[in-house]
Amino acid sequence: MDTDAVPLSLPAPDALRARLPALSQIESQVRVALAEDLGSGDLTAALLPAQQRSRVELITREAAILSGGAWFEAVFRLLDPAVTLQWEAQDGAPIHPGQRLCVLTGPTRALLTGERTAMNYLQTLSGTATRAGRYAAAVAGLPVRVLDTRKTLPGLRLQQKYAVLCGGCHNHRIGLYDAILIKENHILAAGSIPAALAAARTGNPSVTIQIEVENLAELAQALAAGATLILLDNFSLNDLRQAVALTAGRAQLEASGGIDLSTIRAIAATGVDRISVGDLTKDVTAVDLSMRFV
Predict the structure, then answer these.
(1) pTM of the prediction?
(2) Which pLDDT tens digit goes with each residue over 5-48?
(3) Whose CB has fewer CB within 10 Å in the chain, the N or C terminal residue?
(4) Does residue 161 have an active-site annotation?
């Protein structure tokens, strides 16, 4: 993610602000979302006088972790820079039912036109952060990192990756371009685990290389070939424990495959270093928020 400074009124911990995409990326994403909803113009908002102004409060109806303020802000900034916004909660913070999150003031037309697009971002990303928060809490006290995957909603990759951080979990690779993950079909195409690893190392001296194995025998092959980051795909708890013992610190181990809130604590307790969970981003439930005109 780009660490360019983002001039927002959104209060957020410095660590999270540093992980926001560049302002140009945020606004590009929001323009696409607005075009999808706005088309040739908001026929209903146009019924109101252009000079009319309003004050709006954003309220949460349920407990959650807030995320997505940068995209929420960008919607109204792009529609009409005369809209002002004052936050009363910050990204990454727990919020409770009935809490006021922010106050918006400005042209009524812009407030009405941007309401749904802005809410879609904030509800979805807060839902992602809230789910990530549950997973982070489930492994609290254990020396393991819970990571997301590429199983994100189409068009929301960077947004959901940011929301995962707001919830206290971590990012795996962003896409196919920033790290190598050698999976079963790559190994079959290359001919063997050692051959796949050798091919990955050729011409990629500074790129993270991870290889997936499906049993303890393949783990032994990967270790013998010098793998330093290994994904254990759908291992049983007993096999995870054996994998940790066999590896003895020679590589970082990541458990993956069908993991949910009911199983993650036991998996973390086996001693693996990382756990990747597609459920963080692919089965998100939007948080119930409301924009109320005052």
Answers:
(1) 0.92
(2) 444 565 567 788 888 999 999 999 999 999 999 999 999 999 99
(3) C
(4) no
